Every structure is written in C-alpha cells, then in structure tokens.
Amino acid sequence: MPEQQTLSPPQQSVRRTHQVSALFTQGRLVTIPRKQARLEQLLVHLAETLFQRDRSYTEQEVNEALLTVHEDCSALRRHLIVAGLLVRPRDGSSYRRGR
C-alpha cells in the first residue's frame, strides 16, 4: 500500500494560490465559482489580499475593493459575509475581516 503524502503548509498555500489564479484573467475574476470548495478558496484569497485584518471598512470601501476584481461586488460581499470572512454589525455600518 503506497504511503499517503501530506502537504506541508507552504506547499498547500502555493497550491491554493495556483488554483485560485486559474480563476483570473489579467487580474480580473472571470466568473464566481459555483462549486463550494472552489468558491471557498476564492473567498479566502480575496479576504487575505483585499482586506487588512485589524481595519474597519465602510460598505463603499468593501465594494470598491471587490470591484477591482469583479463587477458583481454585492454577490462577492454577500459570499464573504456568509462564509464568515467579513463580519458586520447588525446595522451594516462597517465591515471587518473575520476568521
């Protein structure tokens, strides 16, 4: 029986980045993935690259950041919130990076 290989964290990060980069053409997101695993990879990538961990953002700032990669910023914002990668108070007055 072959020994099962596990990836070390740096290799996983490189692999994830490579997989996510296939979703982009000339810095723009071609389409929002429908498969949950692929969508999760994309959302983590967006949260890590577009939003600082210890900073609060207005909805306009979140939209502007997301518009740099895709025209449907409201769908991406909603996906990020549902995934817990962006959090906001009940009144929606600000956004922060989550998990």
Can you walk me through this structure?
The protein has a single domain, classed as Arc Repressor Mutant, subunit A. It contains four helices and five strands; from the N terminus they run H-E-E-H-E-H-H-E-E. It has helices at residues 9-21, 36-50, 59-67, 73-82, and strands at 24-25, 28-29, 56-57, 86-87, 95-97. Strands 3-5-4 form a three-stranded antiparallel beta sheet. It has a two-stranded antiparallel ribbon with strand order 1-2. A hairpin with a 2-residue loop joins strand 1 and strand 2. Helix 3 packs across helix 4. The longest helix has 15 residues, at 36-50. The termini are far apart. 12% of the residues are buried. The model is unreliable at 1-8 and 10-15 (pLDDT under 50). Pfam families: DUF2087. InterPro entries: DUF2087. This is DUF2087 domain-containing protein.
Give a nutshell description of this structure.
The longest helix has 15 residues, at 36-50. Helix content is 47%, strand content 11%. With 99 residues, the protein is mainly alpha-helical.
Chart the SSEs and their pairings.
Elements (H helix, E strand, L loop, with lengths): L8 H13 L2 E2 L2 E2 L6 H15 L5 E2 L1 H9 L5 H10 L3 E2 L7 E3 L2
Antiparallel strand pairs: 1-2, 3-5, 4-5
InterPro entries: DUF2087
Protein name: DUF2087 domain-containing protein
Keywords for this structure?
disordered N terminus; Arc Repressor Mutant, subunit A; 99 residues; mainly alpha
